[in-house]
Design goal:
Elements: H1 41-45, H2 48-52, H3 54-75, E1 77-79, E2 85-87, H4 90-93, H5 98-132, H6 135-149, H7 154-164, H8 169-173, H9 186-211, H10 214-222, H11 227-255, H12 259-269, H13 273-281, H14 288-320
Antiparallel strand pairs: 1-2
């Protein structure tokens, strides 16, 4: 009589375990700073796969990590009266007054309004496209959205000046002067940002709407639920992480836009954080620590945006996979 190949489940439900939670002692991860935890890391770093990533690692080190570290050092360095320097938060405190605080408030205002408009329009657009249920259309929309979401700069600003500027074609055709609209204001920035924010929202939310399964609708109908019941109790709760993630990503994209805003309104027309950094770096060396403090602020916001977006995307992927 042969013995079974698998061991019975332990108290925690895992097979063959007598450790905590039914896991075997071998399944317990060793401490972080133990030799067993890092055994084999040296060999993995010398593998062909790791060596092939060396150029990318050098690029990240030279053009990403080192600039951020240098920027943080300058931002936290404060000059003393005796000509020396010390570590402090004076450069960040200076951001709470004067034109610097106005730049922060303007950036937050434009980013919040622009991302909110893009979230509503992009969500409705992605929902309508998903209802068509065409894989070819979904592929075409995904390609165009990824292209438009990464498009911008001086050509984008110039195209809006030609169409919606004071002498623009659409500006004159719709008589936008009568309602007081001006492209060279924060409202104009919000309108221009929709060019790449709406495709970003569509690109993020379309897979979620496409991934809503037919079986869920049928189960809702079998239980006597209406379409409103399905979307309020099933559809929207499933899509909400993707919607929030898309809104957060749009906020970060609008917050960090520089070239398009610089061409449209210039450095002094409507202060924004990216424009203020560019202006401060062109002035005396004494203004550079303030610029670096603004840069560190933008880096922190970017990290928070990416962290929140990744967390929400993981939660959304549980249902649409």
């Amino acid at each position: 009589m042969s013995l079974p190949l698998t061991q019975p489940a332990g108290p925690g439900g895992a097979t063959g375990g007598n450790g905590p939670g039914g896991r075997s002692p071998a399944a317990v991860r060793p401490p972080l700073f133990s030799r067993e935890r890092w055994k084999g890391v040296g060999g993995a770093l010398c593998s062909p796969a790791a060596l092939s990533l060396l150029p990318l690692g050098l690029i990240l080190l030279l053009f990403f990590i080192l600039p951020i570290v240098g920027m943080a050092i300058i931002a936290f360095t404060v000059s003393t009266d005796d000509g020396g320097s010390t570590v402090g938060l004076d450069n960040f405190i200076a951001l709470t007054s004067g034109s610097h605080s106005q730049a922060v408030l303007n950036s937050v205002q434009v980013s919040l309004v622009g991302s909110a408009v893009a979230a509503v329009v992009g969500t409705l657009t992605a929902f309508c496209i998903a209802q068509i249920k065409s894989k070819k259309l979904d592929s075409v929309v995904a390609v165009f959205s990824s292209v438009l979401a990464n498009d911008g700069g001086a050509p984008l600003a110039f195209s809006f000046i030609v169409t919606l500027g004071n002498a623009g074609i659409i500006y004159a055709a719709l008589n936008l002067e009568a309602i007081g609209f001006s492209l060279y204001s924060w409202q104009g920035l919000v309108v221009m940002y929709q060019y790449f924010l709406i495709p970003t929202m569509v690109m993020v939310t379309l897979p979620t709407f496409v991934g809503i399964r037919k079986e869920w609708r049928e189960a809702n109908a079998a239980l006597g639920g209406s379409a409103v019941t399905f979307w309020t109790r099933v559809g929207l709760p499933i899509a909400m992480p993707a919607l929030l993630g898309g809104w957060i990503l749009c906020f970060g994209a609008a917050f960090a836009t520089h070239a398009s805003a610089a061409v449209l309104i210039g450095a002094g027309g409507f202060p924004l954080i990216p424009l203020s950094i560019s202006s401060l770096l062109g002035q005396s060396p004494a203004s550079q620590p303030i610029a670096m403090a603004l840069g560190v602020t933008m880096v922190v916001i970017a990290v928070v945006v990416l962290f929140g977006f990744n967390r929400l995307q993981r939660r959304s992927a549980r249902w649409v996979q």
